[in-house]
Every structure is written in C-alpha cells, then in structure tokens.
C-alpha cells in the first residue's frame, strides 16, 4: 500500500470521488481485504452495474487498483491503493522557501551513552547520581540533566522522523553548547568532538579547552567557579553540498548519505572517537547551564 502526499491539483478529482457514501463503503470493504465486483455488489446489496460504475470512478483517481487474477476463470479483483492520503492545501509551484522542522532536545533524553570517569550528570540544583560513576548515566532522573560531562566516551540520541511522507530533506542543522572536559577546568585542553548522524560522520570540531573561572550567564550559583562554567555554541550542517561546521566545509558527506527518507528515526551521536588525536573529554550544556539557553536544537529543511 502506498503512503504519498497529494498535490493541490489532485484535490478536486479525489474529493469528487470521495463525495459518495457508496464509494466510501467500498473503500472501507477493500481496506479489510481485496474483493471482486460481485463480492462488493453482494455486500452492498447493489446491482452489479452500479457497483462496477463506482469501482471505475475510484480506479480513475488511483484510490484503488484492479488486477486480473486466476480463479474460476480470470476475474478482476480490486484492492485499496492508499492507506494514508495527505493533501497539501497550497500550490507547490508557488512555494520557494520550502519547509522547516525544528526539534528542541533536552540533553538528558539520550538513548545510549558510554562515559569514562571523570564523569557526571548535573541537574539544575544538584548532581544526579554519584560523581565519577558511569552508572549515574542510567538513572531515571537523567532526563533532568542540565550538564553532562565525561573524560572520554559519547552520547547518542534518537528523534522521531517527522519529515512528511514523499518529501525530501534538503538540509539538517544541529547546534549545541560544548567544550572539553578537564579536571576542574583548563582553558588549554583540546578535544576532538565528532558528530555522527545515522551512523555517518559529519565532521569533527576540536574544542580548544574547558572553560571556567568566570561564571556562565546561566550557570547556577551553587556550582563552584573552579569547575566548568560554559562552552561554545557549535553548529553542524549537512546539505547537498556536503557537511559543514560553523559554515566551513569539513566533509563530503551529503544529505543523501544520511538516508533521512528511509528511517523512522533520526539518530545522532556526539563524542570522542577511539582514534581521536585529542582525547580531552566533553561537556554538553542544557538550558540552565552555560551561556546559551538551549539544549540541543535540530532543524530540518525539506521540499
């Protein structure tokens, strides 16, 4: 069965075909299983010729398909052609800017992780679980995280794929506040942070250090200033031309390589690769830590 979007030009003939109670009942019967015209006529208590006429109208707009199948002789059997119809109430030819989805992700809503001490999860008012204990990353309260840090490892998220059926992704944009992770803090402490989307590496940013000593604008007062305070807002982007970090091309991986139209989810993982040159850990900031009032933001442009 198909799941396709239908255009503005498709609306009138389809609406005409559906503006009949008998044809609605035929679609309902065919949604259960294929039928031939005799079977439909019998269930609807209608003459064969009347039923055949209704079937023909549904065939004309591709709401059903009819095939010749062997049986008691060759017979025509009809089946439903769509299990979902989406009609866009606009003229596609007049659209120039395309469409955009925005998803705001709390940093604690990760699906998987690997954390090497020193590590921890911090809420707005206190640590979540024990410090330097990777088991804290699996506490139910992790969803309230406002700061996540580890000396080595990664963190992975999966989002629902909300790109409408039949539409094609043009660009995906990912932003988050990040920095390296050193004991306490250290301004000169490089770390190679790599973002992968649907298992495709899209680029590595080398964080120059772990920033502290000056309180982040959102960092709560109880958090000591000799600890990490804020990060830098980094932006990854993938489109038809390749992958970019802060608008500088870093990879030939394109939007088609991410297979965004084929999967029911969008997975992204950020962390330190096993073969990273600079393994200086990672801090990931939420809405109430650091300098930027956001968690992870994902924007998807599609057409």
From TrEMBL:
Pfam families: HTH_5. InterPro entries: ArsR-like_HTH, HTH_ArsR_DNA-bd_dom, Metal_resp_trans_reg, WH-like_DNA-bd_sf, WH_DNA-bd_sf. Residues 4-97 form the HTH arsR-type domain. CDD domains: HTH_ARSR (cd00090). GO terms for molecular function: DNA binding; DNA-binding transcription factor activity. Keywords: DNA-binding, Transcription, Transcription regulation. PANTHER family: ARSENICAL RESISTANCE OPERON REPRESSOR ARSR-RELATED (PTHR43132). This is Predicted transcriptional regulator. It comes from Salisediminibacterium halotolerans.
């Amino acid at each position: 069965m198909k799941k396709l979007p239908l255009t503005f030009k498709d609306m009138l003939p389809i609406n005409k075909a559906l503006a009949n109670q008998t044809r609605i009942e035929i679609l309902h019967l065919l949604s259960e299983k294929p039928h031939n015209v005799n079977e439909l006529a019998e269930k609807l208590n209608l003459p064969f010729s009347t039923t055949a006429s209704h079937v023909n109208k549904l065939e004309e707009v591709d709401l059903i398909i009819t095939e010749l199948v062997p049986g008691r002789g060759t017979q025509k059997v009809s089946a439903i052609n769509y299990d979902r119809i989406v009609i866009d109430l606009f003229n596609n030819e007049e659209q120039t800017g395309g469409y955009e989805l925005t998803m705001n992700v709390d940093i604690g809503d990760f699906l998987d992780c690997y954390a090497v001490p020193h590590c921890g999860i911090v809420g707005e008012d206190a640590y979540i679980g024990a410090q330097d204990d990777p088991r804290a990353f699996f506490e139910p309260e992790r969803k309230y995280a406002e700061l996540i840090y580890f000396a080595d490892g990664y963190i992975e998220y999966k989002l629902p794929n909300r790109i409408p059926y039949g539409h094609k992704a043009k660009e995906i944009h990912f932003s988050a506040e990040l920095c390296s992770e050193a004991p306490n803090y250290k301004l000169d402490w490089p770390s190679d942070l790599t973002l992968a989307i649907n298992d495709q590496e899209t680029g590595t940013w080398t964080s120059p250090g772990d920033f502290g000593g000056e309180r982040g604008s959102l960092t709560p007062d109880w958090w000591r200033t000799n600890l990490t305070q804020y990060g830098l807002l980094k932006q990854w982007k993938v489109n038809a031309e390749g992958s970019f970090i802060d608008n500088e091309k870093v990879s030939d991986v394109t939007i088609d390589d991410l297979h965004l139209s084929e999967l029911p989810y969008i997975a992204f993982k950020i962390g330190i690769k096993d073969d990273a040159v600079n393994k200086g850990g990672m801090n990931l900031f939420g809405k109430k830590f650091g300098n930027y009032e956001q968690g992870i933001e994902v924007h998807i442009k599609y057409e």
